[in-house]
Design goal:
single chain; globular
Amino acid sequence: PAPPPDLPPFPPRRSSESLKDQLCNLPALLDQMRITSSAAFGHSYKSLKHIVDTQPDEDVATTVQGFTNAHTKEIYLYLRSNYCHAFHEAIHTLSYPMAIASNFGLDIMEGLTQYFTDIIFTEQTGGPCTTHNYKAQLVCANALVSDFTRDVAAQIFFQGKFGLLGNLANKLKIKNSTALTAHYKNSCQALP
């Protein structure tokens, strides 16, 4: 069926195919992966986030499963991280995390990252990732994907096509793209 007249036509490709196209960049990204001790992991995280506290650096690994430097695309994991966490961090490097966070908030950014991680993880392992700490954020991402469609969400997430937001606002009968992004940002922050 043809798309509604108020939306541009999208390529008739499955979003998982679009994801696979992005994964061709993964080998170079893996060269940017840093797997370190809990102390070095914590120190790097605190340095990147400009955190100054008296807690031991090792304690960061109890709450942070991995992180990515958005500027350098370096992926940081600690020795006890798992395959799921590595995939999640790699997906960050293929997306527009700062722009997603700016438009939709950190919760949606993490939720969309986990949403697309789960698609790839399921294709690779037969099931979604279950060891992450993004369950509430994933609920938010699923609501957004349900409204936008997986293909449109993938175009925004992986290709930075934020120009689509105005058409989506019209389709969803929301005033404009600013009100659209505020809607998702606010509804996600309301979750526990």
